Amino acid sequence: MTLLLLLWLVSYYAGTLGTHTEIKRVAEEKVTLPCHHQLGLPEKDTLDIEWLLTDNEGNQKVVITYSSRQVYSNFTEEQKGRVAFASNFLAGDASLQIEPLKPSDEGRYTCKVKNSGRYAWSNVILKVLVRPSKPKCELEGELTEGSDLTLQCESSSGTKPIVYYWQRIREKEGEDEHLPPKSRIDYNNPGHVLLQNLTMSSSGLYQCTAGNEAGKESCVVRVTVQYVPSIGMVAGAVTGMVAGALLIFLLVWLLIRRKDKERYEEEERPNEIREDAEAPKARLVKPSSSSSGSRSSRSGSSSTRSTANSASRSQQTLSTEAPPQPGLATHAYSLVRPEMRGSEPKKVHHATLTKAETTPSMIPSQSRAFQTV
């Protein structure tokens, strides 16, 4: 009998002092906060039940109550339609149900039950876990061979702590899923990974996973390393291009010179006098009188076909071939050469030709004297 009384007292005081429970749930899910009592069976009319919430900032508000056979639950717009008693609270189960959970539901919940001067309460600490938001993957640095590149990954929301994990996605058989050997994690920014001394093999698809107790989300980013030629190769290429340009310029210049030379030779070929060519034939013109010699002189002075050098050579030839003889009549003849192409005739003064006509010359009676113009 004494033992039964002791057990009853222990259970009574335990219900009076209350219990403490901690529950973790993910946002948008359903949760049931337990609260059991034995105070409603004797007198149901005097039974009062109340759930209170104390948030992380210390503010307290009423969630749901039962009093005077009425249930009151819509105290705020935020809680409207989301909170209710989970079971038959009059039979001893005053558990609270919340669906769907929101981050603002996190805090310490207190269940108070009163009936006929007796009290019972229980405390439940509710932690609402928020999954990480989809992270954003970014690249910072140069995507060139030999440079450094930082992979950045960050979630804008989610329950702390958030753990970040980078890995390489295998796209082909034989590719490694691990990060390149020269990779370093920035512990001050867990979502940042530094890829040092990039090589062409560093190209590929990289995935970042952000996770916590509620779940995980991931994002991917592609790394394409570009090949950069060395300074020696660039200098060689530039030198080759310059040498090629100079060679082309030289070839063009030589071609132009050759064309100019051929054109010059074509223009000068008609003006050349070959040594083995036959001299042009002279034609004889016999004037009728001395006045005809004058006309020939005048025509020779005005004509563009005779030259002074030809007249001089003709006079010397006549002097050597037919020396003058006294007593014979003098007749003037003119030797006219055909026009030579390409040479411009020089004018001969009229007085010179007149003086040449009056010079007496003796020739045999069988021949005639000729004057070459």
From TrEMBL:
CDD domains: Ig, IgV_CAR_like. It is found in: Cell junction, Tight junction; Cell membrane. One of its GO terms (cellular component) is bicellular tight junction. Residues 263-373 are annotated as: Disordered. Residues 355-373 have a biased composition (Polar residues). Residues 263-281 have a biased composition (Basic and acidic residues). The chain crosses the membrane at residues 231-256. It holds the Pfam family V-set. InterPro entries: CLMP, Ig-like_dom, Ig-like_dom_sf, Ig-like_fold, Ig_sub, Ig_sub2, Ig_V-set. Residues 29-116, 135-224 form the Ig-like domain. The keyword Lipoprotein does not apply. The keyword Transmembrane helix applies. Keywords: Cell junction, Cell membrane, Disulfide bond, Glycoprotein, Immunoglobulin domain, Membrane, Repeat, Signal, Tight junction, Transmembrane, Transmembrane helix. Residues 1-18 form the signal peptide. It is a single-pass type I membrane protein. Residues 288-314 have a biased composition (Low complexity). PANTHER family: CXADR-LIKE MEMBRANE PROTEIN (PTHR44783:SF1). May be involved in the cell-cell adhesion. May play a role in adipocyte differentiation and development of obesity. Is required for normal small intestine development. This is CXADR-like membrane protein. It comes from Equus caballus (Horse).
